[in-house]
Design brief:
Layout (H helix, E strand, L loop, with lengths): L12 H11 L6 E8 L2 E8 L5 H13 L8 H8 L5 E4 L2 H9 L3 E5 L5 E4 L29 H9 L7 E8 L5 E8 L5 H12 L9 H8 L11 E3 L2 H9 L3 E5 L5 E4 L11 H4 L2 H30 L7 H10 L7 H21 L2 H21 L5 H14 L5 H21 L1 H17 L1 E2 L2 E2 L41
Antiparallel strand pairs: 1-2, 2-4, 3-5, 4-5, 6-7, 7-9, 8-10, 9-10, 11-12
Helix pairs in contact: 5-8, 10-14, 10-15, 12-13, 12-14, 12-15, 15-16
Length: 486
């Protein structure tokens, strides 16, 4: 460590206390409680606001002070005197300091060469609430919180399997952020697990404040606009991913879990797809895919047709578009870019403002400013329709990271269409498709199962078949246990 050197624990409680006070000077929230029992000095150290004081009083201090054996041994303290449920011994000062900085309590007793770490973590936390950004009509309403133990418990409730594994990690040279990876041992994709463990072992950073930090450090291609790691705030989504052979990573202080590997179709699936009847889910999923195509290509198609290929549209429609654009001082390309930029500003303002004000700003921006822009002749009415429809269809996508990626691709296609018309649009789409084909997520093709297709994997692709047909796990995941239903 860089903060303090490794040091063995002294047999004098006062020496250990002096050392810690010197190392962690000028910290007003650290409590040092000295007391004596059986003629021996003892001290407990904890962070005010992060430790359960009642537990310390009733199960640590009181039993020790009532003890009447001046030759108490380390084993007696551990096994018979201290009655707290979770106590462990450490022989290294570094481990002890890390423990109480994480919310536990550190205890030293004279004549003992070991210290005791008592699990007393009890900091303020947000209770388990509803998932705000992944709301569903049916199914669970629970969402992750910022406390890692709450989150692991929410997942374990749904995976009551002896082969379920939860491996702890600590990230950050200074932050010492707790994390854990979760998987089912006989189902998990072994190749993806080894890749994840290797990349996690290579993380060397001073602080991890959120799971997004780890996402950015372990993804396959940092230059791609498309997310290669799935982020979710729903424990049922994590459990479903584990049953498919994927791996989840949960980080303390973050309400979002990481799921790997992730494929592009995973980002277009909603939990409601599996809770609704299969015909309804299939229809909604097809509508979702059509909406994504509209949001990606409509502005570019508008630019290409109005600038280069007006002859391919019906005459009456061409006259209508020309009439609506009469008096607009900007070419179609610049008109689209102005509206895209304005819409990006409006959406960012709505996200950052409080909900009540944000809704008002959305109405003002969407109606009054849009109508004023048309009346002033800055944009055409059909442009308002194109951008509005594009924005609405973009947010049908359940994952916000994909929304951002689609926005960047849409701008790229608009630029290509402004240069080469429909040829530019088709070339732009082909470049995006080539990029997606080359992408991987922890050894799994990003477009699976669309590339190297297996007919059985299409039961949960463009449509969602009835649950009785989900006999096999996804073939592209290469799970050891391939069957989930007889």
């Amino acid at each position: 460590m860089k903060e303090f050197e490794k040091k063995l624990i002294s047999t004098s409680a006062k020496e250990n206390l002096a050392y810690i006070k010197a190392v962690l000077a000028q910290n007003g929230d650290i409590v040092f409680r000295e007391f004596s029992f059986d003629g021996r000095n003892a001290v407990i150290i904890y962070i005010d606001g992060m430790a359960d004081k009642l537990l310390l009083d009733e199960y640590v201090i009181q039993p020790l002070m009532q003890h009447e054996d001046d030759k108490i041994s380390s084993e007696e303290v551990f096994n018979t005197v201290v009655t707290a449920s979770d106590v462990r011994k450490v022989d290294d000062m570094t481990k002890g300091i890390n423990a109480f900085l994480s919310g536990d309590t550190l205890m030293f007793i004279d004549n003992l060469t070991e210290a005791y770490v008592i699990a007393t973590r009890s900091w303020p936390n947000r209770g388990v609430g509803q998932a705000e950004n992944e709301a569903t009509i049916k199914g669970s309403k629970e969402g992750f919180t910022e406390t890692i133990r709450f989150n692991t418990a929410l997942v374990r409730r749904r995976v009551r399997d002896t082969r379920f594994k939860l491996i702890p990690y600590v990230f950050g040279e200074r932050s010492k952020s707790d994390a854990c990876i979760m998987y089912i041992d006989d189902i998990v994709n072994k190749k993806a697990l080894k890749l994840l463990q290797k990349r996690l072992a290579n993380i060397d950073i001073d602080a991890i404040l959120d799971s997004s930090y780890i996402e950015h450090l372990i993804e396959d291609n940092i230059n791609s606009p498309f997310p290669q790691i799935q982020m979710t705030e729903r424990p049922d989504v994590v459990a479903a991913a584990l049953y498919e052979g994927r791996i989840a990573l949960i980080v303390d202080n973050s309400p979002y879990a990481i799921i790997v590997p992730a494929t592009l179709p995973n980002f277009f699936q909603s939990p409601d797809d599996y809770y609704e009847r299969w015909l309804n889910s299939s229809l909604v999923r097809l509508v979702r895919f059509m909406a994504i195509l509209i949001s990606l290509a409509m502005p570019a198609l508008y630019v290409a047709i109005t600038s280069y290929h007006s002859a391919i549209i019906p005459t009456k429609l061409a006259y209508s578009i020309a009439a609506s654009r009469e008096g607009v001082p900007f070419p179609a390309f610049l008109e689209v870019m102005i509206m895209e930029f304005s819409m990006a500003i409006l959406l960012e303002a709505i996200v950052r403002l409080p909900k009540a004000i944000g809704a008002t700003i959305g109405i003002v921006g969407g109606l009054i400013i849009g109508q004023s822009a048309v009346s002033a002749g800055l944009v055409s009415p059909i442009m308002i329709i194109v951008i509005s429809l594009t924005t609405i269809t973009t947010f049908i996508t359940p994952n916000y990271d994909v929304v951002t990626a689609l926005r960047l691709c849409r701008i790229f296609l608009v630029i290509a269409s402004s240069i080469l018309g429909l040829y530019g649009l088709m070339m732009g789409l082909m470049l995006i498709l080539i990029h997606l084909i080359k992408l991987e997520s922890f050894g799994t093709a990003y477009l699976a199962p669309m590339v190297n297709p297996n007919i059985r994997d299409f039961k949960d692709m463009y449509i969602k078949l009835p649950l009785k047909y989900f006999k096999d796990r996804p073939k592209y995941m290469k799970t050891p246990d391939k069957y989930r239903q007889k």
